[in-house]
Amino acid sequence: RSQPLVLGIESSCDETGVGIVRGTTLLTNTVSSSMDEHVRFGGVIPEIASRAHLDAFVPTLRQALADADVTLEEVDALAVTSGPGLAGALMVGVCAAKALAVATGKPLYAINHLVAHVGVGLLDGNPDGGAAGGTAGRSASLAGGLGHEGRLPENLGALLVSGGHTEILKINSITSDVRLLGSTIDDAAGEAYDKVARILGLGYPGGPAIDKLARTGNTKAIRFPRGLSQPKYMGTAEEPGKHRYDWSFSGLKTAVARCVEQFEARGEDVPVADIAAAFQEAVVDVITSKAVLACREHGIKDVLLGGGVAANSRLRELTGQRCASAGIRLHVPPLDLCTDNGAMVAALGAQLVMAGIGPSGIRFAPDSSMP
Ligand code: KG4
Ligand code: ZN
C-alpha cells in the first residue's frame, strides 16, 4: 500500500497536540501546553485544561499544517485520542476531530492513548539525530531497530511512566493485540514525584526538581518501602501473586511525609536532598525491577520507554543497566515523542490505515477510563 498521510490529534491532558505523518515518516509534531496555567494550583485542573484546548486547537492545527506543508484536503485520514484521559479535555479533541471529519469527508480513527505511546516507536529514525532529539537522539533510539520497514519487533514490551500512567504492556500486534501485564494500583509514578515534591516544598511539576536535587543526596540515607514487593504479592514465576507486576506508590508518599514530620518533630533540619535521593531510588528500583521481571517472564526482548518520567536520569540509567543484564534491548524515543503529543496518535492511525482496518465513524464517545 502507498504511505497514507495521517493527521493525529491529542488532547487527553494538558497538551494540545497535532501531528502529521506519512506512513512511518514524521512530518510535524506540533504541541501547545497549558502547564503554565496549572503550576500555581500544583496539578492539572481539568476545567482549565479543557478551556485551553478550545483556545489552542485551531492555532495548533494551522501551525502543524504549515510546518508539514500540507493542506487538509491532502490528508488521507484523521486520528484522535478517544481515551483514557480527562473527560472534558478528551471531549475537545474528539469534537474537533469529528467536525474536521464531517467538514472534509475524511475517515476518522479513534485511538487509545496508551497504545499510541507505543506506536510512536514505529516512526522512522532521523539519521541526523533529530532536531529535538535530546540526549537519546532520534537516530540512536528509533533507528536503533525498533521500527524496521514499518514493523515492530515481535517480542515487544512498553514501559509507560508519566503523571497519568505507570504500565508495562506486551505488544503482540500494535493494531489488534496489546496486553496490560502490570500497572499502578494507586498513584502514577509522576504523580508520586509531584506529591513528594510538594511535601518537600519543591514546587510543581516535581519530577525535574527531585531529579536534580537527588544528584546531591545520599540514596542510602533512608530506606523507603518498595510497594507490592512482599512475597504475598509477588508469588513465584509458576504461581504469580496477584500483584507480581503491579506497582503502588501511595504508601511511599506517606512514608516520605512521615519521615519529614519526624525530623520536624525533633527540631532538626529536614535533609531534603537525601530524602529526594532515597525516594527516587525507591521509585526507580521498583519500576525497573518489576518491569524487567515481567519482560523476562513473557519473553520480551525489546522494550520501549515512554511517558514524561522517561526524562528522569536515574530511571534511564537503571532501566538501561537492568535491561542490558537481562539481554533486553531498551529503546528511548526523543523526549518530545515520549511526552503526550499528536504525532503518536497519527503514527498509530497510519498503522491502522496500512493494516486495512476501517475507520471508527463519528459516533464514538470519548472514554476517560478506556482500558
Ligand atoms: O507525560 P507527561 O508530560 O504528562 C502526563 O502525565 O501524561 O508527564 C508528566 C509527569 C509529571 O508528573 C512530571 O513530574 C514527570 O512527568 N516528570 C519527571 C521528570 N520530568 C517530568 N519525573 C521524574 N523525573 C523527571 N526528570
Ligand atoms: Zn500519555
UniProtKB/TrEMBL annotation:
Which UniProt keywords are listed? Acyltransferase, Cytoplasm, Iron, Metal-binding, Transferase, tRNA processing
The protein in question is named tRNA N6-adenosine threonylcarbamoyltransferase
Binding residues annotated for Fe cation, in chain numbering: H113, H117, D340
Documented EC number(s): 2.3.1.234
HAMAP family with a match to the protein in the record: TsaD
What does the entry's cofactor note say about binding and number? Binds 1 Fe(2+) ion per subunit.
Q: Does the keyword rRNA-binding apply?
A: no
Which family is it part of? Belongs to the KAE1 / TsaD family.
What does the record give under GO molecular function? tRNA N(6)-L-threonylcarbamoyladenine synthase activity
Q: Which InterPro entries does UniProt cross-reference here?
A: ATPase_NBD, Gcp-like_dom, KAE1/TsaD, TsaD
Q: What does this protein do?
A: Required for the formation of a threonylcarbamoyl group on adenosine at position 37 (t(6)A37) in tRNAs that read codons beginning with adenine. Is involved in the transfer of the threonylcarbamoyl moiety of threonylcarbamoyl-AMP (TC-AMP) to the N6 group of A37, together with TsaE and TsaB. TsaD likely plays a direct catalytic role in this reaction.
Q: Where is the Gcp-like domain?
A: 26-124, 157-346
Location in or out of the cell: Cytoplasm
Q: What does the record give as cofactor? A: Fe(2+)
Sites where the protein binds substrate: L160, V161, S162, G163, G164, D194, G207, D211, N312
